[in-house]
Amino acid sequence: MTKPPTASAPAIDTIATDVGGVLYYDEPFELAWLQGVLERAGDADPALTIERFTAQMRRFYLRRASATASPGLYTPAGTHAWTDVRRRWADLAQPVPGAVDALAALAQHRPVCVVANQPPECEEVLRASGAAEHLALIALDTTVGIAKPDPGLLGWAIGQLGWNPATTLMVGDRPDHDAAPAQSLGAHAALVTPPTDWSAPPGTDPALATAYQEVRAERLEVRRHPAADHSLHTRDLADLADQLADRAPARRHTKALR
């Protein structure tokens, strides 16, 4: 696969960042949910095999490639499994190494906020990790009422903070959910390399983990989007902090969330 060209670095005064794939990994939550669905569906149908379940999982994810995984693979098993994952959110969270330190480095020079499709439990994890003290705002779809890829979520955060879209950078791992909405508002986008060094939660069926990783690779291909061609490309948040360090503007006073 040919890597999209890297756009020239724009003037950046303010930064919005996604959470999943940037600050912590999405995959452990998805795998915990899938394991929960598998167990509950197996209780309801003792004839269910791991092969049949993973085949249905593949169809579910690739058919819904433009959406995040959500309860619905099985009903009501999916709904109950998602409720359980939310209860375990803090325990399942696996921080991206160095991400909080990078966030702190960015926040020394530029106001930073979070704009993400995450459940309310996300904020608890951001506070526990120390990330929240570096943020001017945490805008989650579940609390604001607008979900990406609707650009209204980022637009709401920019409006709340009084930022200029033309000098705002949206950092994320998805060209369709992060880069495209930002560009539609006249903001800039930076895409991190999808991380792979997460671990499957304890108790995950090995066959499920293997099938999930295969589907995950296919989903990354399906998610290719023209917005990637007009985005900055960076390894991770730490790499972005290094890239922007030499072009840091004077820090504007912004009250952080407490």
Unreliable residue runs: 1-7, 65-71, 250-258
Q: Kindly give the count of domains.
A: 1
CATH topology heading: Rossmann fold
CATH superfamily, please? HAD superfamily/HAD-like
What does it look like?
The chain is an alpha/beta fold and 258 residues long. The chain has a single domain, classed as HAD superfamily/HAD-like (Rossmann fold, 3-Layer(aba) Sandwich). It contains 11 helices and 6 strands. α1 (27-44) crosses α3, α2 runs parallel beside α10 (206-222) and α5 (99-107) runs parallel beside α11 (237-245). The longest helix is centred in the first third of the chain and has 18 residues, at 27-44. The model is unreliable at 1-7, 65-71 and 250-258 (pLDDT under 50).
Q: Topology of this structure?
A:
Layout (H helix, E strand, L loop, with lengths): L13 E4 L9 H18 L5 H14 L13 H11 L1 H4 L6 H9 L4 E5 L4 H9 L8 E3 H4 L7 H10 L6 E5 L2 H10 L3 E5 L13 H17 L9 E3 L2 H9 L13
Parallel strand pairs: 1-2, 1-4, 2-3, 4-5, 5-6
Helix pairs in contact: 1-3, 2-10, 5-11
